[in-house]
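Quick look at the format.
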Amino acid sequence: MLNPSPLLDTELMQFVSTRGHAPAVGLSAAIAAGLAPDGGLYVPDVLPAPRELQAGATLAGTAADLLAPFFEGDPLQDALPEICREAFDFPVPLRPLGRDGDHVLELFHGPTAAFKDIGARFLAGTLSRLQAGKGRDLTIVVATSGDTGAAVAAAFHRQPGVRVVVLYPDGRVSPRQAHQLGCFGDNIQALRVAGSFDDCQAMVKQALADTDLQAQVPLSSANSISLGRLLPQMSYYAHAALTHHARTRRRLNLVVPTGNLGNAMAAVLARALGVPIGQLVLATNANAVLPAYFNGGDYQPQASVATVANAMDVGAPSNFERLRWLYAEDDGELRAAFRAFAVDDVTIRATIASAHASSGELFCPHTATAVKVLQDLRARGAKGDWAVVSTAHPAKFEAVVEPLIGESVQVPPALDALLQRPAHAEPLAADYAALREVLLHR
């Protein structure tokens, strides 16, 4: 694994491409670019040394403390505490779940009822400051499998100097997710793509690497490839694990539902910085590229398949590139650090139904994958304290959840307000030339 190394007081942390063929840049430049010029993802050239982080702060305080080494010396350094206060103004509770030692970390209490709100709001805070005073608008182009696009749209809605173009796979997101994506208007443009999330993601990456396009339309990304979204996602893991450790003196093990690996990558980095996180177990849906790899197979991206846990319908997880880079391309060491399990649709549905029938718990399909994996781990004798990471409110997936539990799911007020707005999305072929035209001519 990459060796953490303390920076000298006179040194500015640099960020390099996972592919090694792009110049090192500072944090602000890496956030503004989104993707490195060689098509790689930005990572710190060295990790800060693990620190003695303290529990008891607010989530915003924990975030500012955790992220400080990455921002030191950067133009955004002085604004970091304020950015954190703006972004982290809703709770992320760690609450008991069933048996003693089991917990659920709820990350869906933001304005669009998904964990993506946290990274998106932080990214908006950084880019709004970097964009201030510039003559040309910045276009943020983002691919979404369901939740990312709405979180980004909400975070940047009506923000001066920024235009957002959201691509989503037509017919492969829930009806409420689709409504959220198209309900903002103003500086937000939603495109329903005749293809899969992987098609959307490939088109976004191609746009970001198109130097001729960038010369005419400055672009950035808000997908989990963005460093400005990845880094703040460490904060909720740090806050939960530090609070738990202060109370119990035990590390918190995590089961993370994952598609593009950004949420899990954040937990990896938090642990490397000294956060008392124990084991990290990945839960996927039937898109089982990661379980196949961690069980000893080759890493083989595949075409994604549609499932009831649609936000994880990813066949080529982008952040695997960061994960492999972090472990210095050592597949043996990387495989030894994680376990990953796939859960099919039948089992996801059964988990949602049985959890509600037995204890009244309500889970979205993505959270249910992690709940099932934790149940299986316990059945095989897993010890210690565990948290299932709950990524979205079940009301976003009423078409799946409500028939299984036999009743309506109460819609959170913020989500309900979005659903009351009219929505519109424009059709787009799964073709880069079509996206390029949209970006050039609004």
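Next, a different chain entirely:
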Amino acid sequence: MTAPTAGPLQPDESMRGSVRICLTALVAGVVIGFVGGVFRWCLQTADRLRIDFVDWAHQLPGPGWLVPIAAAAVGATLAALIVRWEPLAAGSGIQHVEAVFLGEAKPPLIRLLPAKFVGGVLSIGSGLVLGREGPTVHMGAAIGTEAARRARLPDSEVRMMQTALGGAGLAVAFNAPIGGTLFTLEEVTKSFRVKTVLATLISCAAGVACSRLVLGNHADFQVEPMDAPALAWLPLFIAFGLLTGCLGAAYNGLTLWFLDHVGAIRRVPSLAKAAIIGAIVGLAMFVYPLSVGGGEDLTQRILGGQNLVLSVVIGILAVRFVAGPLSYSAAVPGGLFAPLLAVGALWGLVFTGCFNAVWPDDASQLAIPMALVGMAAFFGATVRAPVTGMVVVTEMTATTATLVPMMAATAAAVLVAYLVGSPPIYESLRERMPDEESIERRGNG
């Protein structure tokens, strides 16, 4: 007699598996919601304290400018020390989530969670131009992996769960549940498998709901109600999108240039590199505090309609355009996404200001719409996930008035980025990831 072969799963068995996946996603979503909410609260507190700290330093007699330089250098060094303990905590983490889904890396262990949390607070809180979303996505992936293992899901579902919870992490980071779901499906999996969709939807909804218990039930940015820009301005938004595509390609190139060249300096220890980069950022922080950090306060001022002198906006844009890639090369916990939004908003202001200087009529009413469009278009040009970018910006600002010009400009920006041969930034970062053996050697060294 021949041994019976295992047949396909019976409907009841498949249903029980789906229910277990959904329950696991719910529990893990609650955890990342509270963890991510507290993480964001810590960063908001650090932002306020940093601005007060710089004001105090300005009042010191003598070389008071040395104080924020030293503070930023110490914060970056401490974050680098955490990376020495857990090498996987370096950088954004989004590229690692993608690599795990593709089977190119192992799912993260739960020890990554405290490393990303504390390291992210130190690096971003000290003023480095890094985003909160990278650590939150990676923490979500670690929580999803641990939850799936404890639920005794098969390896394929463990990878799926870390991917879904990575999207929940992004949803929590930006208070954007639909955006987090789309991020998983558009950027990471590039597919719509039913179990993945369900796990991501449940974890994103639970995560954002719990984070709002910590941070408040409101949109991230307060934007005054506005009318949709006249359709006659649509060609201007498209032209803006074409230029934004070039700017996004340049930003990606600069990020990779700093990453490669700073990493190639073997004689300088990683701790010293982080300290030097932190000191440079600390000097910029002393000159103008809003030119550093994640950029949330700066973006709110722009979208809130605060009057900023065009020369000051150009200066902040130039600093953040360089400081973001430079900060990322320090190899400390922190992402790229949030600084991209601030750069996009600044670029929208600069474009409007320059256009208004040559246009015979007053076009200043386009400033806030162009800033909103710039946030989505610049993200689309760099990350190459245009729908995610547009939805995240829409959810963060709770406004749909600019959707039509936003879609046109984002499409133009993504097209230009493709035409100039600029690869998506997370794809490039994934190609530069060290292999698993290298990471383990660094962790044991």
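The CA atoms of residues 19 and 302 lie 45 Å apart.

See the schema section for token definitions.
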